[in-house]
Protein 1
Amino acid sequence: MDEQTYTVITFAPVQGFIEKSRKLRDLYGSSYLLSLLSWVICQAARKQGCSVVSPASINVVQGMPNQIIIKGELSEDGVGEIKSTFYLAWRIITNTCREWVEENLKEWEYTWKRNWDLWGNYAWEFFSARGKPGDSITDVRELINQAKNSRDWTGINWQGESSTLSGADAIAYPRLGASGDPRKYNYQQEQTDITNFYQQLSLKLGEVLIQENSQSSADNLEVELEAEKEDFSQLSEEEKEKKKQEFIQKYGSSFINVREQLSIPELIKRLITHRIILAKFKHNFLQNREKLGEFPVNLNRIASELSPKTFKDLNRHKDEAEEKKYWTGWFQGDGDGAGKYFKSLSKEEEEQETNKFSEEMRDWGNELTENQRKYLDNKGRMIYAGGDDFLGVLYCPDRQIQPKECLELLSNFKSGIWHGEKQKKITASVGFVWAGSQVPQRDILQHCHQAEQSAKKKGRDRIAFRVLFNSGNYLEWVCPWWVLDMQDLGKVSHDFPHIKVPTDPKKQEVLNLIESYQDRNYGKNWTHFYQDVALLESRHAFDGERTIVDEKSVNNPQIDIALSLIKIYFGWEWYEIIANTNNWFNQYDENDIQIFTGILGYPKLFDSQCSNDLIDKIVKKSKDTYQVRKAFNDWVINLAKVGFRLTEDKK
């Protein structure tokens, strides 16, 4: 039997593409573009006579990961052909966006083509690794990781101001790249030109949507006005024109707010979500069908999903001062330890299991997209970004969603949404942000990413709750899923008998940690717990006495007070679980795969010399380790602060 040959191809943006996204529309746009470029690579590989191991279901574009595993003989020239096809698709995207702007805003003199061409040529790094016959997929993955360490990218220089979103690149406007005497540079004039350009562009994006249908624009306006319970027939011509301009402005601002100043990549991510521009891209794509193939049908979903009619309730720029602004919940998540799972597979099974894993995740992503309203109880939407990445928003269009509603939805996320009816091979970590009404969307998305990373760093298979105030300050509490998800707790208690599932003695109901809370009057008022912790903190009751450790003076905290608070407010059963130091740290199997998620997470956070098979070492001395006691106290303190915010009634 001939030994198989594998090639791994991946690509990465020179500037972060998804990570740098600062608005939800950016995330949608970047997610679809990444998926499209992955799809192009898969189709090009098949043209070379190869098969694609991962991603599975390559005829479905949405949610494609950017690492492609190819089976078959693929020469260096073949890889070069795939790379050429990849860059062709990207240049069609950039040229489509630029040409549409130039064709629709003809009053400007454009000097920016060279900068667009540079982004067309240098926006991405393309990596490939070809294994030898007999090399495993894991071997070739190691090669691609080595290739990614040798970055070879070209930075794009510019003159002038940087974008207001990322601050990393030049503002895209018609005079970008214009040559001139630096001594005659007029900053005020440039700012005026940029402002005027984005005002005109925003209005044009709204105008072409209003005029898109073969019906008159008045017919479209009539539908909109009926939705707002206004009688179109009773309006004068002047009032109709005024309403038309209002809708043009509203539609346009859902793509670009007039106060924004975007770089070329940021502008591309916005424009490609516009139905008219997407149609133009499809036309240009099909002009190159001999090399690119047919246009992927389900890419059209991006325009309908981001239609201003369905997307306007998430626009956090509210120009009307009297318009009600609400707190909203945002969450971002990612699978845990996929790399370790693949490494645990034998050479004989890794191809089949890799393909199966990819198929499971893509089926999950498709299911998530199709049934997100069911999963979120019609209180938000989710984006499947590809692979095992996802993002969601929890909100109600016409009222303030309560933080308790968000908490209830996320409490069952692992068992109800992540695993569902079919257990995944890996777990997930999620960062949730309960964001103030005045916090800009770009800041929320940044905090979502940070909260997710916090969940990862604290030990994975957990959720980080972050309360983000309008001032920019925040509170955070991180816990394992089994603290909230009772199905997960049932599974954990089956595998680890030292954890007993708490039940309400009166109702015989299984209650998670938050639901088990009782104040001193046997009610659900978190103010008691919150105020007790605040008072104890103000008196430094958690700090303990000063002591010398490694020639440094440190606080030597005690955990008796924190444990007493758990017993008082959450009952004896949860006290027994939380007080048991065996439940504090992660545990791992012989393949270094996490099999138990501890409250405090990685043991190495507290003892760098502690290997995963020496958990008992740190458990035994945990009460003698001041870092562990401090971490436990912080966990209880943050539970009080964040729990108070997530259980209050928002007006």
Protein 2
Amino acid sequence: MVRLTDVEKAILRGDNGRLQQKALENIISYAEALGAQELCVVTKATLGLGAQPYLNNIQSDDYNQIFSRVYMCTDEVLDISHNKFSAECFCMTCTENCDTEDYEEVGLTKEYFDKNRRFLEVARAAGVSMASTCTPYLLGWLPLKGEHFVTTESSNAMFCNSLLGACGNPDGVEAAAWSAICGRTPKWGLHCAENRYASHEFKIECPAQSAIDWDVIGYTIGRLLPAGGIPVITGDFAYPTIAEVKQLFATIATTSGAVMCHILGMTPEGQTMTMATGGHGVKESFNVSTAEYQKSLTMLCDVTPGPVDFISLGCPHYTLEEIRDVANYISGKKIKSGVRLYLWTAYPIKEMARASGYLDVIEDAGGRIMTSSCPIMVGQSIMKQSRGVVLDGAKQAHYIRSMTDAAVYYGDKYRCIDAAISGKWDH
């Protein structure tokens, strides 16, 4: 039996409307299946909404019906736009399958673009804030220590658990939606302090001086981490910057199921080894050697040089600082004819790039700043008949191979820009 507060009993009675009532019914069933005896108050949520491809399984254009079947797991049609999400929970949209403004550039139809906008408008009317990014923490969505969150983005879960000290599990889209709607989630997993301790140590003995280094380190840690493990990173290195830790957490979550990582002396729950492990020590230690680093690079980047025509930067979405760095590097240069260069970010950051003059510099060179999505989310339509794909994010390089027959190359943003200018990848 799940213990409920008076507020939760009121939601369950239907005092806040049928949508929140149904969401809490589902959460209680979820908690019972997990063996959780009580619920947590959820203060932050991000959800993948809009016209997501998996919604096509429901043969309908009625978003209320689609949302009810897919997210709420019921044949009862719930009116989403006239039933508000929980006022206790600040919910924003995660990435979409289309740029906010330009559907043609990414190979999608106006019909799909309009459908996506229509579906998102229903969510907005229900109280969801529009952000459409995998890096909501760059836009002020910041659950802090003691807060509980839900998210459909693995790198975001890793970032918030690890760096901010907030508490969240890798729930599926359905459970995350229920939590955002009723403001509750089962108290289990990483919502409980005893489940947040490090189990495996990773000693850094390879380069750790740039975003690509931390990207590859994360990919390597995830490869080596036993199932169910939580890593603690140790070694003689400078603490990673926001851009570097963003890459680290994204790639650990790519090659493992982990959504928490301690960095000794840096992260709030990893100030000491005793704090990170709860005084229990680690089960096993791994060395992230230069050899392991190179092995990961070989897995991510094709070895044979060749022509390239599709360059994508920004996984996870770029910070304004990263866009500035690209603008400074590309200023006065030109992208080779027939080559497409995309930078991906959140649309508020694109507007800051416009105000800062970076957008003009990048567009003058032949590049584009895109928002709200990425090649993996858009799908095969964006790559068209590409011969060579170049990426600066290991997460993209890992997943995109199943979407294209093109050569896939991976490197830091400067090497990627050089490839965009020359039209070829050289080793």
Protein 3
Amino acid sequence: MVARASTPPAFGRLLALWRSRRGATQLQLASTAGTTPRHLSFLETGRSRPGRELVLRLAAALDIPLRDRNAMLVAAGLAPEYPSLGLDDDRSASPLTAVLQRVLASHEPYPAWIYGTGLRILGANRAAARLFPDLAQMDPTAIIDLWFRPGPLRAMIENWPEVSTALLDTLRREVRQTADPRSTKLLRRAETLAQRASLAPTPPAADMPFACPRLRIGDRRVRTIGAVLRFDTAVEVTASELRVELMFPADEASAAFFRDAAAAG
């Protein structure tokens, strides 16, 4: 009889996968997480089962997103650690939604968007709707298509190559950090469309420290600077995945454009 190779349990496979994604050796991870390479090897092969504390230490050492930390706990036969409530859940709506609404409102007359993973737009303020109508209602794939295919949006962005290069870099970082299947699929589509558009990697202009859109709207040129707000201390899954993108004017002429747009309704 031929012996059949055993398959490592789910937790061991996940641990080895995340360790590989982070480029860490068993020795490096064991040192950071306060265990031994031998024990780590036993965990990955299924010869040992981890306790809750060790799973959380390993996940923290690998900087694994909260959603995936829960998955690792479940794979180890343990209960999830981090709640996943959603923005419309009564238990999270009071503090989190109030903060998000206040950020969006206080940023007027300048645009602001709330994103989840995979370029999902979860909210936007009025200025954002004025600048890019219907964008907040589009699914991520449609947004990528709109951005990379020839059309009015691409035509209004004077520095489309450098901003698109930055967008691809952002998507790649998200995929490396989260390994989210939706983000991975979105990145592949974006890279395919970028290749069709003959996009070459383009650094930001020398006079700007950020790769932010310069827009041509009618006879007006609008220069912008972007900033991203994150909830880095979040211990709830949805909040940990949120980011708020804030667009600021880069000069007085651009600020006047946004003020005029708000006044015109």
